[in-house]
Amino acid sequence: MKQYYSIKAVHPDAILLFRVGDFYETFGEDAIRASGILGITLTRRANGAASYVELAGFPYHAIDTYLPKLVRAGERVAICEQLEDPKLVKGLVKRGVIELVTPGVVLEENILSNKENIYLASIYFGRQSTGVAFLDISTGEFYVSEGSDSYVDKLLSNFAPKEIIYQRGCEEHFTQAFGSKYYTYRLDEWVFSEEVNREKLCRQFGTQSLKGFGVEHFTTGISAAGAILHYLEFTEHKNIGHVTSIARIDQNDYVWIDKFTIRNLELFSTNGAAGRKNGFADVIDRTLTPMGGRLLKRWVAMPIKEPARINERLDIVELLTREGEFAEALREQLEAVGDLERIGSRIAAARITPRELVQLKNSLSAVETLKVLLQSTDADRLHQLAERIDPLTEVRDRLAHDIYPDPQNNQIQKGGVIADGVDAELDDLRRIALHGKDYLNRIQQRESEATGIPSLKISYNNVFGYYIEVRNTYKDKVPPTWIRKQTLTSAERYITEELKEYEEKILGAEERMLVIEQRIYSEIVAYVARTLPQLQRNAATIAGIDCLQSFARIACERHYVRPVLDEGRRIDIRQGRHPVIETLMPVGEQYVPNDVMLDDKEQQIMMITGPNMSGKSALLRQTALIVLMAQMGSFVPAESAHIGIVDKIFTRVGASDNISQGESTFMVEMLESASILNNISDRSLVLLDEIGRGTSTYDGISIAWAMVEYLHNHPTARAKTLFATHYHELNEMEQMCPRVKNYHVAVKEMGNTIVFLRKLERGGTEHSFGIHVARMAGMPLSVVARAEEILRNLELVYGNNEIVPSRSLKERGRKASAHAVREAAESPSPQNMQLSMFQLDDPVLVQIRDQIKGLDINSLTPIEALNKLNEIKKITGL
Predict the structure, then answer these.
(1) Cα–Cα distance between 613 and 615 in angstroms, integer?
(2) Dist CA 571 CA 719 (whole Å)
(3) Would you state the pLDDT for residue 516?
(4) Which of 121, 224, 323, 380 would give a disulfide with 133, using CB separation of 3.0 to 4.6 Å?
């Protein structure tokens, strides 16, 4: 326990799995936490004369089952192994932590998800900017950037790291900038020293400077990136030869997609249904390799802005949509390629298993065929891809020669991995081990014939090894050269020189075989490790090809078209469809397509009204997704699409509470809206849905109106905007703002029901059909009927409210509205409702009534009428 506590003191915040014989044990608080997470028995045992310690453990061979559960529960796990062979040590066995597994530093295959990156992020808060770096140790992908806190927050949403490290003492700054949803770990300030970390990065990449990576001027970014390397050392992950370069993330290269947009567009999961496989990325994913699936998610999170690069991708997608047989042959080879990125990382960490090396050999065979296939076409684009691929034929041939195609064991420690013909001594030892029984049978038969002892038999025990057993009846026939070792009641046991020599050979054979196999295996792994840069380049190229064939495949399946992209300011989508919703339509139903046209001269803002459930939100989302798909390099669900490059996509769609931080629906709506207005540019696409519905009608209309004005009148940024609203009063803005145009989503009334046509048409509308939707939702019929009665009464008494700009009148309007609802609710039927404003209890209206109550209109002169009107005007405060 003294040894345990000394090791635990180094990792106080991790669950320490302490190897004791054939078990991993946990003690004290660790045992209590582990037993709760793993569902294993918690016991107690004596720890000295007067105390007890909690204890929970599991067999060492079950670690692959239990370790993932601990890590997924957000625990840091320190694995403490016996560093010496207990058979060769007297007293206490030396132990030490061989690996610290955290949510962001994982190499175990059974914890990793095939098509998901496990990023560790590092953040350094500098004086003028914030640095950020991301590393997936399982693939070797390393990225760095720096900028404002809001920019770093966007990158965190894009990369979704499993763990973030940052400097101690900045807890409040971190929470204010990025919230509290991330798993974090704090390190001392000195770990982020720029000078030290610059040297550390150069040493890792084997370079004199970082200029070749384009990150030389990143000061806070280098501080963050170097801290990741320190953290890997701290967690005992020192074999990171596969981390050979670092890529710069330039905010000018990618479309700005913030965390609100990622959530509102449901890019990676559906809101309120995490894990359900109909997020946008899952629906469009037809990749065939793990690294292709991971790259596709990065393309979704970070679309590009350079038309030339986008068109390079589109050229290949178009070629693959035309060349059906070629595309199928390409997919066949891609399916045979394993996860080259993660195989490379496990080679670098010397944790590669025999079957993974066999998978690498098979993958390299497929890679060679893939290269030949790309070279066989007439397309220059595909020839360029082929040139980037190195089939590593020497590596493949050595693996094929040195390792069994189907190894007996997946652990080199158990042997049965290295093929015959690789090592002569190994082959001899195998013959001895495999044919040892036959050899003993031959000795037994020969000695039986030579001595005339028919019952003679050769056996083995741990005391004196192999022996010949002779029953007492025949002991007088035993040759004098045999040495007697044991006398039994009915027999005697002897050994011979021949048996002793064979025993030494056969007992040492198995142990010697394991030593030779491990030596050869280490040589193979070291040989393959020298080709890691080529292997990683292959992985990156194949991942890109996989994404493009995925785009081509889905384009053929769903009849997508190639978009036209340029540097213009116009977005013109004809007959566009929602790429996710159209896949979820019931059998026999077709998604209703719509046209959307936005530019900065004539139609900058489309004001879209229409009833609930008519498809306004879907129209907004589909526009953003079509633009995003186009700038990823994919074909799009439309009849045609002309996209002027967009640099930022902002969305405010749907309501959500952030209860954990005490933020209401309306507060979240205003935060997201403020983020949009403060960051728009001339190439931004803005989608706003039901702005202001989280507060009172008058406040909501005022905010929505002011936002539209701001977007329309911005001096430098004419952001293209789709604005869906229930506030029909906003249709008036078309008369005041020349680039605002009214549209509505059409419906057809049939008696007491409505049919949603889901077609976007020019012009506004003044009906929300809320009660119809309530009926469709299954609201009790009595409630629906009562709502209709109150609505009819309100329409008779109150009519259509006009917006009154005066604050005092706005307050009076609210009171009048409240009184109108009460009057309408109290009235049994419309017939009993007098069309009189004087039924309202507003004191101002009462004064007006008193002023005109006794007037004789027939005898009133024009001057008297004007004077009376002036008095009434004074009462109203106008």
Answers:
(1) 6
(2) 11
(3) 94
(4) 224
Length of the chain: 878
CA-based nearest residue to 498, from 472, 473, 479, 514: 479
> Is 294 within 8 Å of 245 (Cβ atoms)?
no
Instruction: Name the nearest CA neighbour of 40 among 54, 52, 51.
Output: 54
Tell me the DSSP string of 208-231.
S-SGGGT-TT-HHHHHHHHHHHHH
CB 399 within 8 A of CB 358: yes
Distance, in Å, from the CA atom of 541 to the CA atom of 383, rounded to the nearest integer, reads 12
Please write down the long-range contacts of 20-25, taking CB distance under 8 Å and 24 or more positions apart. 20/57, 21/86, 22/59, 22/60, 22/61, 23/57, 23/58, 23/59, 23/60, 24/57, 24/58, 24/59, 24/60, 24/63, 24/66, 24/79, 25/55, 25/56, 25/57
Return the structure tokens found at 200. Answer: 């550390």
482, 483, 494, 503 from 497: Cα distances, Å: 8, 9, 10, 10
Per-residue pLDDT reduced to its tens digit, 27-85? 999 999 999 999 998 988 776 655 788 899 999 888 888 999 998 888 999 999 988 87
Which residue, chain included where needed, has tokens 């007992």? 507
Coil, strand or helix: which one is 232?
A: helix
Q: Residue 483: which H helix or E strand, with range? A: strand 483-487
563-768: CATH topology is: Rossmann fold (3.40.50)
Fold of 424-522: MutS, DNA mismatch repair protein; Chain A, domain 3 (1.10.1420)
Distance CA(618)–CA(647), nearest Å, equals 22
Residue 488 tokens read as: 């039994």
Please list, residue by residue across 818-847, b when 16 or more beta carbons sit within 10 angstroms of its beta carbon and e when fewer do.
ebbeebbeebeeeeebeeeeeebebebbee
Asked if 185 contacts 162 with a C-beta cutoff of 8 angstroms, the reply is: no
**Which residue matches tokens 């889905």?**
554
Q: Which amino acid is at 31?
A: A
Residue type, 491: A
d(CA 315, CA 322): 11
Under 8 Å between Cβ of 477 and 452: yes
Residue 383 phi/psi, 5-degree rounding, is: -65, -40
- The CATH class given to the 120-251 domain equals alpha beta
Task: Locate the domains of the chain by residue range.
Answer: 2-101, 120-251, 284-382+531-557, 424-522, 563-768, 780-839, 842-878
CATH class of 2-101: alpha beta
Q: Which CATH class for the 284-382+531-557 domain?
A: mainly alpha
How far, in Å, CA of 370 to CA of 541, rounded?
A: 11
Q: Return the structure tokens found at 855.
A: 């007037």
Task: Write the DSSP string, 21-35.
Answer: TTEEEEEHHHHHHHH
Q: Pick left, alpha or beta for residue 457 (phi over 0 → left; psi -120 to 50 → alpha; otherwise beta).
A: beta
Query: What does pLDDT average to in each consecutive run of 10 residues of the chain (878 residues)?
Result: 90 92 91 92 74 87 89 90 80 88 87 88 94 95 94 93 94 93 93 95 93 92 96 91 92 89 88 60 94 95 94 95 91 95 92 93 96 91 93 95 90 88 90 76 88 88 85 90 90 90 78 91 95 94 96 95 95 95 87 94 91 82 96 96 95 59 69 86 92 73 88 92 86 90 81 73 72 71 76 61 40 49 56 44 67 75 81 73
Between the two ends of the chain, the Cα-to-Cα distance in Å is: 86
Q: Give residue 851's pLDDT.
A: 75
Torsions phi, psi of 565, nearest 5? -120, 140
By three-state DSSP, how is residue 453 classified? coil
Q: How far apart are CA 675 and CA 153, in angstroms?
A: 12
Cα Rg of the chain, angstroms: 38
Tokens of 309: 């690069």
Q: Is 424-522 in the same CATH topology as 284-382+531-557?
A: yes
SS3 458: strand
Would you say 577 and 637 are in contact if contact means Cβ atoms under 8 Å apart? yes
